[in-house]
Amino acid sequence: EEWQGLDENVAHVPFSAERYSEAEMIQRSRMFYELLNKRRSVRFLSDEPVPREVIDNVIRTAGTSPSGAHTEPWTFVVVQDPHLKHKIREIVEEEEEINYKKRMGDRWVNDLKRLRTNWIKEYLDTAPYLILIFKQVYGRLPNGKKKTHYYNEISVSIACGILLSALQNAGLYTVTSTPLNCGPQLRALLQRPANEKLLLLLPVGYPKKDATVPALTRKPLEDIMVVM
């Protein structure tokens, strides 16, 4: 196969990592769990401004994610313009209404009733930032030929998980949104190239003072871990 345009001889350098005592490892792992366990999907977001530098830093953090052959197949589109946010809302709500009424099916819609979700997405207007994460299904070499992006969806999904953790660490909240059938329209609106496909949409901000969340519980460790 044709060479993919990556450096053939990447220099390898010494690596040293900080080593913690067992007690500190236990403490750090517990504290990080307690921080992430406070993460909730919040649909009632304030329009209170968020420092742009925070957004820059959490996306830098997401960009530390591993990726297949280090292709880094992600694009994070940050939308703060009110008019553009409203256009996104119009696209999403139009498609989501069809999804709820026709495409998703009764079982899916009934499962969502207890969470009180619907096709009205006010947070797309009120959140100070929308972050749309696109996976690059392939890249381009300098000669214009396609460059394979191995495991692009898995790689970008890992980056999304790191981004959620970084937002929680910064005291910001979001709700993971995967609006069905909106990808092509949003890609066109944001003038993204044909090799990019929308994977996730995150409204980001502070919760409203009167925000509510469902009283859900998480599975205990013994239900999610198998030790062999």
TrEMBL record:
GO CC annotation: what is one?
plasma membrane
Q: Which residues form the Nitroreductase domain?
A: 37-206
Query: Per the UniProt entry, what species is this protein from, by scientific name?
Result: Upupa epops
Which controlled-vocabulary keywords does the entry list?
Answer: Flavoprotein, FMN, Oxidoreductase
UniProt KW Flavoprotein keyword:
yes
Give the GO molecular function terms. iodotyrosine deiodinase activity
Is rRNA-binding a UniProt keyword of this protein?
no
Q: Which GO terms describe its biological process?
A: tyrosine metabolic process
Q: Which InterPro entries match?
A: Nitroreductase, Nitroreductase-like, Nitroreductase/BluB
User: What protein name is recorded for this chain?
Assistant: iodotyrosine deiodinase
